Every structure is written in C-alpha cells, then in structure tokens.
C-alpha cells in the first residue's frame, strides 16, 4: 500500500474552504484550477526557488509576489489574488499549516537579539507619553468647525443625530461622563487613499467657512457623530453615471470627487466601490492603485509596508482625538 505524500499544494486543496475564506478576508477571489496552475506551472518558472508542490516559505513567496507585481508588461495582474492569499496563509498559518511552517519558527527567536539593544530605551518611551498630552489639548479648538453658520448643515447638527457607535441616551451628569469616555473608542480611520488625494488636490485651508457633510465629525456635547453615505446618494451616483466599463474616466472623476469632498472612512470607500464597480472592476482598480503607490522618492514603490499603508486590505482603526 502506497503512502501519499502531503505537500503545501495538496494541503491547501484539502482545506480549500479555508483557503477561500482567507482569500475573502484579503478582498480577493481564487479558483481551484488556476490555484493549481499558478503553483505548479507558472511560479516555478520565475527562478526564485518556488517548487512545483508549493511552499510556505515567506522569503520565496515575497520574491514571487515582487514578480507578480512588476509594473508594465512584466507583471501578472491575474495572479495577484493567488500570491496574496499564499502570503496571508504563511503570515498567519491556520492549524493545518502550522506543522509545515514550524521549522521556520526557530528563526524568529533570533529576532529578539535585535530588540535587546532597544530594551535600554524604556525611559524614552515614558518620555513620549507626556508628549501625547499636547496633542490632546487642541481638542477645544475643534468646536470651531461647528461655527459655520452658513449652509444647511447647521440644521442637521442641531438635531444631534446619534453618535458613532452604540451609546444609550443619558439623563445624568455621570452618564454624560461615560458618553464622553466611550465616544473616544476605536472608530474607522479616514481612508489613507482619501488623505493622499486630499493632500494633492486641496491647498491648505485658509478659512473654515465651507461646510461639508463629512462622515465623521464632532457634534453637540463634543460627541463624535458618524454620517455614512445615504442610499439615495449611492443610488444617484450609480444611476446617473456610466459604468466603469463604458466610461472609466468619468466614473474615476466621480469617485475622486467623492473621496475629496466627503472624506469617507475605509468602510465607506468599500461601500462606494462595491456600489459603483463590479467585483472584477473593483479588483482591477485596487490592483492598479496599489501599483501606483509612490514612495518617499516620488516613484512607484513595491515595499509592502508602504503599499499597505496607502491602500490597506483590512479596516484600519483610529482613536478619536489622538491624531
């Protein structure tokens, strides 16, 4: 009786449901047939040490990823979802993968040798904490945003809509203190993509007389209030503009305008792209956007930390009042 040999490729096929779930967490979709083709036929030809049976070695995976993300005709956009999923499996291996990556775990204990030097730096860390308090002091200046007396938004603000997150109505001073504390809980950060567009398109604001319907803003009683896109806005944007396949330039201009004027959160961006684009179009747009991320030198970068910082695949979190 022959004994079958388990390989990384065969292991992923045996747990294909988990592989698809991990791919979904990366906002991509993978097919089993192409998964096998890329692993056994395409990636071994990249000459980076990728075996036909697959591997969970992060060094090799990242080398394949750099080939896949290569700009111009040398790139392989159709392989992006698959190598990204391989990378996610290797970074956070599920239980059925851990036996295959355990030989590499001894390499990680060597890393604490590097932090052994910085262990002498807790005093500077403690010195940083007082530096955070000045960043909290400018908070009283934020009510100036509500000083705009021109525009219809004043009527909306006076109605005190429910604050962002779950908070029950308070009738006592003690409850008010609790609301103020809970109002600074973790909330979706504005999309880094919005910050980059805003930095390129908007000059430094000299006055604050223009009122805009921002998804997240400071309302009455210094409570952060969240205003998501309304269904009517999404409906009008989708039905009054051509599809991306018909006129990509016009729809791109619409999306850039919405990102610049509304300053949406990461969740809002996902909802906007999911409404205006098909699943395949959204994947293409995100891929091209990640390939166009510029580094500190102003050139397109392939460094994963810079790309993920500009276009994160997972929802970033931000504590209100800390930035």
From TrEMBL:
Domain Gag polyprotein inner coat protein p12 span(s) in chain numbering: 130-213
Domain Core shell protein Gag P30: 232-320
Domain (Gamma-retroviral matrix protein): residue spans on this chain: 2-109
Entry's localization field: Host cell membrane
Keyword hit for Membrane: yes
Lineage top rank: taxon: Eukaryota
One Pfam assignment: Gag_p30
Any one GO BP annotation for this protein: virion assembly
Keyword Membrane: yes
Family matches, as PANTHER family: GAG_P30 DOMAIN-CONTAINING PROTEIN
This protein's name: Truncated gag-pro-pol polyprotein
Organism phylogeny: Eukaryota, Metazoa, Chordata, Craniata, Vertebrata
